[in-house]
User: Fold this.
Amino acid sequence: MSLISTLARLEAVSTGRAQAAATVRHRHLAERPLVLVPLTTAGEAGAPLGALVGTDRDAPRLLVVPQPRDRDLRFAFLAELADVVLPYIDAYAGQVEAAERNETDPETGKRVKVEVELCADAPQLIVPSRPGVDFLRLLGRSMRFRRTAEQDPETPYPAPPRVPLLGRWLTHFGERARVPGSSLLLAMTDVLSRHWATGQSTLEDQHLGALLAWIAPPEGSTGAEAALDAELARDAKGQLLCPPAGPATDPAFDNKLLAPAIERYDRARTALAAAEDGLEADDRLGELTAAERGIRDLVLSRTLPTWEKVWQGLDLLRELPVGAHVEERWTRDRWSFTAHRDRIAAGEPPQPRRDDAVTAANKLASREREQARLEAQEALDDPLVMAGRRLSGEAFTGEVIEVVMAYSESKRPSPRPLVTLRTDDRPHLGERVKVYRSLGGKPQTAEFVGLEDSPGDGALLVLRILDKMGRGKEPEAGSVPEKGDRLCFTLFEHEQRGGPKLPDPEQTPWTHGGPPGEAVAEAADPTTAEDVL
Amino acid sequence: MPPPRTQGKALRQRLAELRGPGVPAKALDARALAALAANPGCSRRAILDGAGVNKAALAGALGSPSAFGQSQFALTRGNAFEAKVKADGGAELLRLVHEKLDRGAEPPAGASVPDLSAAGPEGRAARTALALREATAAAGTWTLLDHPMLALDVAGSPAFLEPDAVVVHPDGRWTVVEIKSFPMLDGSADPAKVGAAARQAAVYVLALEEVAARLDPAPVVRHRVLLVCPKDFSNLPTASAVDVRKQRAVTGRQLARLTRVQDIADALPEGTCFSPELPTAELTSAVESVPATYAPECLSACELAFHCRTRSREAGAVTALGRSVRAELGGLTTVEDVLAAARGETGDPEDPAVAALRRAARLRAEALGQEAAPCR
Assistant:
């Protein structure tokens, strides 16, 4: 955490309200995001209890598993979830625009441009918190290797038709969420705490209710009081007034409300199965329906407050003006979405359990590159972020004092003007260190020449401008700073270069396990008869 | 120097007084011991745990109840899984130990599972020690001790610990087995949970080493424990060997330092008592008489955390925002001090922390388009 954000937190403590940690919005928000508030069963892996899902704030769809240990009920839940999520995804998969991509021609080995499809927009999933993102990954993992009756008639517990597909999509969303700056799948707490600094620690910021309480405290109370209420206040029955954002539920809720309700449901189901005639069965079916409704009400009561909070968070975020580079990063998300759509359409198998060495190295490299890109772009988009970089000596702002025209000593002299800048910042500059400024959205490079004795405050830096001045002897108009201009230079590059290319998977060196060999279809997870999960 | 025995006795007496008349000591379990090691600088936690005070009850009496609880679903699932792992005389468990830790030994068949039941924790601990000695003497056979009881001396009073299982190998070495119900997904489990399990197992290893030290020749306690978890989404067990040398060293060192409990107890005013029966005001001042080092990490490990957090916030301590925040502010420890220094009202401009703070405040104000700070 930089000193600037620490200061913001301290100011939040003293004013009782969250302070700005960004002046623009750094994440893309879709016009119609799909909000998903999942709940899970304590102690079980990948056993959802229910979810509230939808794109319409006023009409969420409630999905519930009345007995989370029952495989059939769980499949029914996942099938329903697929019915909501997949049509939403398909709506974006169908609308494409033409785009170009560089590819290596297999025959000539040259880089050529190819016309490809790019989805005009991409779907966006929003969950309340980071554990929610992990839970979607887990659900994706639990579904993508399942077999449907159509794929394999012999499979002992066939999954409903669209469930494996949903698994592949959730896996993709979960994997993409690990790429810095991506917005296909967002956790509300992460996005909010990126834009506001609260008067509590980052650990406590993981609580959506407390975080929102700091950002928008209710009338007449401070953020600290409201956050404390959100964390701890309980009703007469000992239940949290602001239920946790999930997917884990409060143990008090599990023990006092949910467990009796599930027990009642189990009893009703056993009774129905034991019914001897139609009349009796009708009665008992009524009891079963009532028991199921009881659980639905309980799940709704725990998810609806969170649902509202996610939308409130979206409202708050939409008030911020969007950052200049957000659109560009979203285009990368669209590429990622389109690529996965194409993989599914091409009939490729689900993502493997473990990546091969080359894929894993590629993923890591791309995450590192995206991290650097995100940091650079956020700084360029947002003076508050740039202030942090200036404080740490990675950027500086100053006023141009003097411009002296000079030329390179080559056969065809090109302009290499010397610019003297007065700055109060303290950049870490060494001789011939390259610095960059944004000139009409493109980075212009300069190199540090030296320090001049300064008569007044601050330091006088001499920089030599190196590029973006055109081909002629005289620099193009506007490409050289003028006296009196206020400029911001950075020591970090604005655009990220890709690293060295990795070999194809078939060329994996023996040090990294060698070529993966023939692709083997991943087997589904084994299921056993007595295995309730 | 008085003989250590009397010292121990005096300390025990003193700790009982701290607990309050008629309040039974809360046994320290491995989880609590491991958590203690996570925040070793906290005197409050050290003395309360050392004296066996029930911190959850204490927190309730102070008016800041803890939010810890376990869902019965998790409990049921955990117990069912453990029963499954140990079913059939522990055949599956021993197979996993053989496969993951001791492939060189002969495969376990017809391992002995001694009966460890006895009256009271002392009796069970003695029975466990006896069973361990017999199993070690019987070379060439596998022995599974289901829920043995181990005694560990913590700050002068014994803590009784109950590992899920201990296995004695044919070569006479001992292995701690920890059975957890979080899944091992494609061969990897949640690192935070594995870390907690490893710290817990390390406490068992320490306790076993005490038992081993009393035998001649002393058997070896393996520093690789076996962590048994459900495989993927099923309830079939799978296992992985976890090296706990580091956790064992850390916990061992912290436990050795816990003799400080004596010093903390000596520093307390006469008549201090932490009984939850006492009126809130009295109890609060008793708790306040021991300094705490609160950090947000406490929230997930200590029952008193909410109380300490309130206090820490009231005092305006910057550590309440995280340990890293404190680290970059030099000697400034309260929110108001920092803000005043940043505004240029107080503080020595020559102090690098203050100078950095003022620069940060100026840059932040400039970026937000506010008036530059007056210190400029």
Notes: Chain A touches chain B through 56 residues (CB under 8 Å). DSSP finds twelve helices and 15 strands in chain A. The first strand of chain A starts at residue 19 and ends at 20.
